[in-house]
Amino acid sequence: MTDTPPAPQQAGVPSCYRHPGRETYVRCTRCERPICPDCMIEASVGFQCPECVREGNRDVRRAQGRFGGEVATVPRLTYALIAVNVAVFLLQYGLGDANLIRYDFGLIPPLVAEGEYYRLLTSAFLHHGVAHLVLNMWALWAVGQSLELWLGRTRFLALYMMSALGGSALVYLASPPLSNTAGASGAIFGLFGAIFVISRRMNMDIRPIAFVIILNLAFTFVIPLLGGSNISWQGHLGGLFTGGALAMAYAYAPRRHRTAVQLGATAAVAVLLLVLTVLRTAALA
To answer: By Cβ atoms counted within 10 A, which residue in 9, 13, 70, 209 is the most buried?
Structure first.
């Protein structure tokens, strides 16, 4: 008994270009190369090969929000900033002397003048107790989510950090030399200023946020006069002005040159804060 030889491959049957041993009659609708079931990716019409799908994805522009940032559906950065502040607070009070940590990283003008410029930023992540942290994080949660979704994560992060530095710059410029300032309030007031400007740009009711700003400014100046805890009006006003100025650039930049205007405004604010810092350092030297 003899073995029956295998039937010869039918002439003219194409093979998958990625798997030569697999016969197929399906072709990619873009490049028309034959593709087997493992290589078929369903498209609006027919199937495409993996290479054409990757090439097509490169040409797809990501959706942009109203002010130029990438559209975000979940405010992950807001949650991340809250988590960072809470983590620093736990380290501050859980791993050592909180007062010592504030001395090492708080905004003390003479130490900044000696070259410890990192304090302008690190001070914005320290807090004077649970109430201080909770109030700031509640405000960040309430205001930051909307701003992040409107602006996109990159612009929102720039707004938050520049507002924090704006508050620190005015603290450095106008606080008593022996003061030690800490807290995210400068960044929070920057968000207050920004949401006021952007809400107005979007023709929304600005009365609620205006009331919040006025109320917080009243607390800023009245509580110390009544013998309460010291509140840094410099940090609050510095953050408010910085956040409001950046929001003006982000919200009103012309569409045609929007990114360039927004980048230029951010750089201009950074340069202004740097100049103020240099002048104050020279005065304290």
So the answer is: 209
Is the model's pLDDT at 4 over the cut of 50? Answer: no
Which of 175, 185, 199, 232 does the annotation list as catalytic?
185
C-alpha to C-alpha distance for 137 and 131, rounded to whole angstroms: 10
In angstroms, the CA 92 to CA 125 distance is: 10
| Annotation marks residue 163 as catalytic | no
pLDDT band at 25 (very low <50, low <70, confident <90, very high): confident
In angstroms, the CA 251 to CA 66 distance is 9
Count other C-beta atoms under 10 Å from residue 93's C-beta: 15
Amino acid identity of 109?
P
pTM of the model: 0.78
Closest by CA to 119, choosing from 127, 101, 107, 111, is 107
Task: Give me the mean pLDDT over the 181-189 stretch.
Answer: 96
Residue 236 annotated to the active site:
yes
Q: How many CB atoms lie within 10 A of CB 237?
A: 21
Q: Which pair of tokens denotes residue 105? A: 């990283």
* List of residues 6+ apart from 276 with CB closer than 8 A: 169, 170, 172, 173
